[in-house]
Amino acid sequence: MMDQAQSLRRLVAGQNRKLADRGEGTARIITVCSGKGGVGKSNFTLNFALALKSMGKRVLLFDADIGMANLDVLMGVSAEYNLYHLLGGEAGIEQIIQTGPGRLPFIAGGSGMEELFSLSDSDLNYFTSQIATIADEMDYILFDTGAGLSKETMRFIISADDCIVVTTPEPTAITDAYALMKVVHTAQPSTAFQLVVNLASDTREAIAASDKIRLTARRFLELDIPYLGFISSDSHVVQAVKRQIPFSLAYPNSAAAMDIHRLTLRYLSSDCSSVSAESRGIKGFIGKWLRRI
């Protein structure tokens, strides 16, 4: 049976329509970021994408971590193509879409991410038009960005519909997560943050960590940040990383896998109507991106 990535290739092969001639470009764009490294951001993004797919959503995962792209390693997949091949004109978007575990379509990052942020306007327009080619075939496009707040990560965050910030109960992770939100909010007040606490020992610790960020943001930024949930500190996650298999597939009954499932259901049930039709989806993403905010 043809997998989703192969289906996408057939759907987009031979297409050369302009963005203005397409539909609404309904894919919702989500960036996942963190204030610092070592909080399990990429692992969360991968398993969150798989959870969305298991709930019937059409998902494309995009590794947008400059210099430290590792989603293919977490999946145990050797990517034949990555973003570099698209930007160099060596392959089209339909060719660089790879298939990961759980038949999850993904685009590997690698060195091409650096070139992405130094493109001419015409080349950047080509990149965004390629992404737009598949947007109508997706419900969600997830960008796993680099840790911390570089100018490149900032571009992804403020151009997306949602920004999920991953932290841990560690004090430095909490401080850095809030600092990221503060800088982004100052630059783009309409940014829609949502918070996830990873590696929590229990519900109480997770809520305490999230409250520190949310209460501070409410007090000093007048910003209400929704709390999506937490992922337990679970030895199965470490075992899955060593096996290079997503923990939600390797150990579907583990505490971490069940946490991801609950968290994903909460995300899907959240109200997304606050984002205007003109600014959401791939058209909104491309519009903001090309303005080089």
Automatic annotation (TrEMBL):
Keywords: ATP-binding, Cell projection, Cilium, Flagellum, Nucleotide-binding
Domain of life: Bacteria
Matches recorded under InterPro entries: AAA_dom (IPR025669), FlhG (IPR033875), MinD_FleN (IPR025501), P-loop_NTPase (IPR027417), ParA/MinD_ATPase (IPR050625)
Residues covered by the AAA domain: 28-191
Ranges that cross the membrane: none
Protein name: Flagellar biosynthesis protein FlhG
Species: Paenibacillus forsythiae
